[in-house]
């Protein structure tokens, strides 16, 4: 945006435009500050059309060098839109913007907002292009549609021009550091764009041609270096593969063992949650109170409680739930329910209804389980068998703790899971050795160093000719 007569004290440029530094904008709008009202309307129309214009009131930040910001905006914009009016035509800053856009080979789209300007002051880049009229007497919507149509013409070519220009300028500003050059598919696409750019606007710039040429030279040098290094890769492949397999096998064995344990613990935690949901806390509280009064396993509530535990075992056969309440004696609990009482030919010791159980110091988790969920991750043994266990509180509908729940997995189940995982790993080991042997043979064949680079194809020769002409 520009002042018609900028004063020496005015630190802002009299014509600005916008585009973020990291992502290109669709258009860079160069205009006079006296035309701001019209440009605001144009800016709104662009936004409504899902286009991204660069405008100085959005894109130049405090403390930022305005001319550098303008240059970056022009570089990163696909199209340079110039709002023609007597003030913008006479503006020196607008003319500087045009000059820089010309040096970047930007596509120009002049739009006429106000006539009455001195045609002799028109920059040749503006005078030589077709104009789109946005005068007050013109239909704005129709003119704006014509502008969008012009913007979308050869859009892929224009966007590639913008992207390559930004990267070429960045490469030059970084002392032509090779790390900023094009590689791989980016390079092939850039060369293809350069080869097909004849007769299209905007034309490639000298910096773009040099950038693409330098990228190809660096790619060729890199290819030669890779060829020299191939024999080293070939000679070290077999040893590296063997070392990888051995180290990987050791790691995999440890990881698989840990995975098996984690899987069992997750299953144990799931079993605890399922059992907690299955047990009715209010009925359990009533069962405990009735046992204190009458006792006996003929109690209907007790029988229903045992059936609930049996259902959990049926759904999760490896889970063996027991329930208990705290005793009046220190470090003692009283067993209430036990699924083993419902299982025929039980191989584990079965507790009895109302039986007291002295909690050893190593089993303090049984008491802690009355307040929170506890997972016993290491296999332990007690008079009931060898297990890993989980326990948690049983609560009534009022949220009060009325007992504890213990769910056990037999140690033999844990060992069986770990053994199955280890047996499956042997298949993986054998497949890995076979695959690495085949891979080594493939590498020996594919990476055989060639004597020299392949001869350029006719298309690449043509591309080289196009680069040199630019």
Query: So what's the oligomer here?
Result: single chain
Q: What characteristic shape results from the CA principal axes? A: elongated
Distance between the termini: 33 Å
Strand content: 15-25%
Structural class label: alpha/beta
Task: List low-pLDDT spans.
Answer: 1-23, 451-459, 463-470
Main β-sheet, in a few words? 6 strands, antiparallel
Number of helices: 15
Order of helices and strands: EHEHHEHHEHEHHHHHHEEEHEEEHH
Query: What's the alpha carbon Rg, rounded to whole Å?
Result: 40 Å
Describe this structure in words.
The protein has 470 residues and is of the alpha/beta class. The chain contains 15 helices and eleven strands. The protein has helices at 36-48, 56-59, 66-76, 86-90, 92-103, 124-127, 140-152, 155-173, 184-195, 206-278, 281-293, 300-315, 365-368, 411-446, 458-469; strands at 25-30, 53-54, 77-84, 107-112, 132-133, 320-326, 332-338, 356-358, 374-382, 385-395, 401-410. A hairpin with a 2-residue loop joins strand 9 (374-382) and strand 10. Helix 8 packs across helix 10 (206-278), helix 9 (184-195) packs across helix 15 and helix 10 (206-278) runs antiparallel to helix 14.
């Amino acid at each position: 945006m520009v002042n018609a007569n900028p004063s020496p004290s005015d630190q802002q440029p009299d014509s600005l435009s916008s585009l973020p530094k990291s992502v290109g904008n669709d258009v860079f709008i160069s205009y006079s500050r006296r035309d701001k009202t019209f440009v605001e309307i144009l800016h709104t129309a662009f936004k409504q059309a899902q286009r991204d214009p660069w405008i100085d009131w959005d894109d130049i930040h405090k403390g930022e060098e305005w001319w550098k910001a303008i240059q970056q905006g022009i570089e990163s914009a696909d199209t340079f839109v110039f709002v023609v009016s007597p003030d913008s035509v006479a503006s020196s800053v607008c003319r500087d913007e045009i000059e820089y856009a010309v040096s970047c080979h930007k596509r120009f789209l002049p739009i006429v907002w106000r006539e009455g300007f001195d045609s002799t002051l028109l920059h040749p880049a503006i005078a030589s292009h077709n104009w789109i009229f946005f005068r007050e007497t013109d239909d704005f919507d129709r003119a704006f549609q014509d502008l969008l149509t012009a913007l979308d013409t050869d859009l892929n070519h224009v966007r590639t021009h913008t992207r390559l220009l930004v990267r070429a300028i960045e490469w030059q500003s970084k002392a032509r550091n090779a790390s900023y050059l094009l590689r791989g598919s980016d390079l092939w696409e850039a060369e293809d764009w350069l080869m097909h750019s004849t007769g299209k606007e905007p034309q490639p710039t000298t910096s773009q041609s040099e950038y693409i040429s330098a990228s190809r030279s660096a790619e060729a040098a890199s290819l030669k270096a890779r060829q020299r290094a191939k024999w080293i890769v070939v000679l070290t492949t077999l040893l590296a593969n063997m070392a990888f397999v051995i180290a990987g096998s050791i790691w995999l064995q440890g990881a698989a063992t840990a995975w098996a344990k984690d899987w069992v613990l997750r299953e144990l935690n799931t079993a605890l949650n399922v059992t907690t949901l299955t047990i009715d806390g209010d009925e359990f509280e009533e069962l405990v109170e009735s046992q204190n009064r009458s006792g006996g396993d003929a109690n209907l509530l007790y029988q229903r409680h045992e059936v609930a535990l049996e259902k959990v075992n049926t759904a999760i056969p490896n889970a063996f739930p027991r329930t208990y309440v705290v005793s009046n004696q220190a470090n003692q609990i009283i067993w209430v329910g036990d699924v083993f009482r419902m299982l025929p030919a039980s191989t584990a010791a079965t507790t009895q209804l109302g039986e007291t159980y002295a909690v050893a110091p190593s089993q303090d988790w049984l008491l802690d389980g009355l307040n929170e969920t506890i997972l016993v991750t290491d296999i332990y043994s007690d008079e009931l068998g060898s297990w890993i266990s989980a326990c948690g509180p049983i609560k009534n509908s009022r949220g009060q703790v009325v007992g504890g729940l213990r769910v056990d997995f037999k140690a033999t189940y844990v060992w069986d899971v770990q053994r199955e995982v280890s047996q499956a790993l042997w298949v993986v080991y054998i497949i890995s050795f076979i695959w690495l042997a085949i891979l080594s043979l493939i590498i020996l064949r594919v990476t055989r160093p060639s004597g020299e680079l392949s001869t350029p194809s006719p298309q690449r020769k043509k591309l080289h000719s196009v680069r040199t002409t630019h």
